[in-house]
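step: validate -> pass
step: tokenize input -> pass
step: predict -> running
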Amino acid sequence: MATQRLTEEEVHAACADIAAQGERPTALILLDRLGRGSLTTITKYLNSWNTTVEAQAIKVDTLPAVVKLPQELSKEGDDLLKRMWHVAKSLTDAELDIQREALKQAEIANQTKVEEAFTFSEAQSMKIDRLEDALSDIKAQLAEEQSDHAETVAKLIEAEKANVGLSKDNDQLRHEISALKSQVATLEESSKAAVLDRQELQQKHDTEIKQKDAEIRSFDMQVNNLQSSLDSTVKANDQLKTDIKEKASKLSAQVIEFEKLNVRYESTVSELKTVKSDLKAVNKAASDAGKLVANLEGQLEVYKSLDKSEKR
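step: predict -> pass
step: emit ->
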């Protein structure tokens, strides 16, 4: 925190206090009494006090710069003794007026140099004040940074502890990763073997599909042939039925004529038996053809179901 700046009122009060004790205020005495401020600032405020009505009434220029009391005097009566000493001393000061006047003229001659030095000192004082403020800020920042550094060191220690644990975990993970890599390599070999087996099975499956397709085409041709045979048989059966109808019609005519043509009875009966025998043979052939067609249709359904399952 920056030191509080010295005010003109504080310097004037200190000057009045020192003058009341019979001493002439000087910059060094004021600096020692106030304990802060620069000589430039104190001198500036001292000069402004010297021009006041209070200083003129006291005749501060005639006061001694330093009053030295005998050592045997008690410190408890310092103020009273100083005043008494001043009264006694004033009786002999008349002799020193001429010397004081000469010194005053010399002081006036050196005032210009003092003012120049005062200006330079004032600038230096302002610079020192700024540097003190900056130094105070730097100290505050340094304290903050030291606190941050301590906190960072504590965090670093914790991080190092955590890092030790992480290193152990990392070693464990390396072992696990190595084992997993071995398992992955084994799985890759197994996968390659499985791919080869799958390709071989695919080739076998394609070959079997081609064979099944050829068999199905062969069965389709057989079915077509059987269908043609069935159609021919059906046509023959229809023709036989037509023939049977015609023969039945003829038979009816022959029955009617039987009564008239008794002589031809035996031959007509024999012809009727022959026709019945042919009819049975035709019916049997038609029945066998129907069974064969049903059998072929069943086989066709079986082949179709097999083909669907192979495609799936």
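step: describe -> Residues 8-109 form one domain.
step: cleanup -> pass
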